[in-house]
Amino acid sequence: MNVSYKYGLLVFVPLFITLTLGCSKTPTYSRTEFVMGTSVVISVFDSDKSKQTIKAAVDAAFEEIKRVDTLMSNYKDNSEVSEINRLKGGERIKVSDETMEVLRRSREISALTKGAFDITVLPLLELWGFYGDSNTDRRPADKEIRAVLKSVGYKKLKLGGGNSVIKSKDGVKIILGGIAKGYAVDRAVRILKSRGIKSVLVEAGGDLICAGVKPDKNLWKIAIRHPRVKHKPIAILETEGCAIATSGDYENYHIVEGKRCSHIIDPRRGYPRGDLPASVTVIAKDVATADGLATAVFVLGPVEGMKFVENTPDIEAIIISDEAGEIKTVVSSGLKERIIFPRN
Fold first, then answer.
1. What is the pLDDT of residues 58-104, one digit of tens each?
2. pLDDT of 98-125, one tens digit each?
3. Residues 186, 289: Cα–Cα separation, whole Å
């Protein structure tokens, strides 16, 4: 997390988006911790509470994020996700209410997007070298992709009563990275609000909530990062508060056969799409939803993705494409009056 103070602005530069508060007032209390594989920043602006009260609330919020990570991490052997991935076909396991909630919401997003978002994509990520020790710039053979696709598909994971999870066949493995971080941010804000915090920002590697009234009573300003120029905003969103998530091709990619290959693989086909955006930012009712839909819209591509956004209630999006070096930005209809494009 790079923080700079300039001309009375407090500018955060996280993984995918830049957040500009646009006022001279700094947070009453702010803390950064590395959780869920990324920097998580909680900034509180309430001025009517003691530092001790705010610190206790932030402590509780971070503990909740860590608890979600303990349940849903692919990198913790004792997590419920790791236990699910060790199951054989036909075996079942009982999971916590929180993990089941994320699994059910993932399934809803998968159904809504016709499989463009799919938590069973992990075998494909391994094949393409985007997970674990399988880093590679080799393009998998078509027959390898066809073989792995037999273990991919959200309907291959059965969710039953009593929080039971059943695998339909061997080889099915899940990864919740496309939604669990957003879910953790949502829960952290819920904890903060329950402790009386009214004005807060929580950001975790491209997932963000700005909640409550900004200290100067003006709109929050969220600056969307330019996908090809680090630390440069390409657009600024003005909002009273929002849940937002960004997926981009610029932090995790390989160069395969001379072309940029994003870590976001189309789980329906087994390949990255040729017309993938450079970045997708989604605004939704909560960060978990925005997180999952940002991945889905990225997979759908600029044209189909924006059509999906315009036809789906309660979401908006900014899709940025790199067409042979020419950057193009498309904004959904509900955002057009809230977006500012800085002059170069």
1. 999 999 999 999 999 999 999 999 999 999 999 999 999 999 999 99
2. 999 999 999 999 999 999 999 999 999 9
3. 10
Whole-number Å distance between alpha carbons of 125 and 129 = 6
The residues spanned by each domain of the chain are 2-46+198-340
Which residue do the tokens 């919401």 mark? 105
What region, left, alpha or beta, does residue 30 occupy, with left being phi > 0 and alpha being psi -120 to 50 degrees? beta
Reading the block at residue 161, the tokens are 């009563």
Residue 163 phi, psi (nearest 5): 60, 30
64 contacts 187 by C-beta, under 8 angstroms:
yes
Q: Which residue has the tokens 């059509």?
A: 307
pLDDT at 256: 65
Q: Cα–Cα distances in Å, from 285 out to 48, 77, 176, 313?
A: 28, 32, 19, 10
Fold exhibited by the domain 2-46+198-340: T-fold (3.10.520)
